[in-house]
Amino acid sequence: MKPVLIIRTGRAPDNIRGRHGDFPHWFRICTRLLPQQVRVVDVAAGEALPPPQEVAGAMITGSAAMVTERIAWSERTAGWIRQAMDIELPLFGVCYGHQLMAHALGGRVDYLPGGREIGTQPIELLHDAAADPLAATLPSSFRAHTTHEQSVLEPPRGSAVLARSARDPHQLLRHGPQAISTQFHPEFNADVMRAYIKRKHADMRREGTDPRQTFSDVAATPVARRLLRQFAHQHGWANAAAWS
Question: Which domains does the chain have, with CATH numbers?
Answer without folding.
Answer: 4-243 (3.40.50.880)
